[in-house]
Amino acid sequence: MARDLESSSVLVTGASSGIGAATARAFARAGADVHAVGRRIERLDALALEHPSIRAHRVDVTDRAAVFALASEIDCDVAVANAGVMQLGSFLDMPWEDIERQMKVNFDGLVHTLQAFGRGMRERGDGVLVPVSSIVSIQAFPAYAAYCASKFAVRAVAEALTMELKGTGVSVVHVLPGATRTELHGHMDPAAIPEATRRRKRVPPEQVADAIVAAVRRPRATVLCDGPARMLYWGKRVAPGLVEAVVARATRGTRAGEPDT
Fold first, then answer.
1. Is the pTM value of this prediction over 0.70?
2. CATH number assigned to the domain comprising residue 230
């Protein structure tokens, strides 16, 4: 049976731009009351002006106390843990601060969100938790070591949580976007981004958002949002050695590899 999103309460983190902003808009169009969470309040306020059912909340997901404080104020039927950052570079040379930042936002922030809002869902016996990782949670790439590590960790949480919550009435929908047009690389020195990555064809964030809304209506464990992501996902399962060989060959001699998600 499809979940009725009319007047449902939906939380979306990382809603200042990209997939998060597109997802907030998509749920609002579906009739949900949307709580858009992020650090850039001016972006969130502008988003809220687009639709009367979107409310802006300035919260840094790495601040566990702040996330739990928000959860004490609002009950959510759906929580989309989407906030994320990326920094490319040689793993051995990457400053600890860049590694730590990616883990704090991409993993710690997601954990805070799922725990803060998931506990209430479990008590009520209903809800949908939506951890957003990446297709690089399936296959690592050179120069993406720290980012991939954070996303591999998200995938582990999603898989375990799915089993833990079976029979509780709470669904877990794990979303693995592929190459998407977002601001994820916007803060980086262009020289650190390989030409192949810059040329990569990307899907619009609205495509990912629509996939998330559809999966929340009819929950399923894994959501793949584009053709190349599906190929990598299934290829890794059917012929992992072949996929690893292709990736090694394609990224040989480069620092920044090929993925862009």
1. yes
2. 3.40.50.720
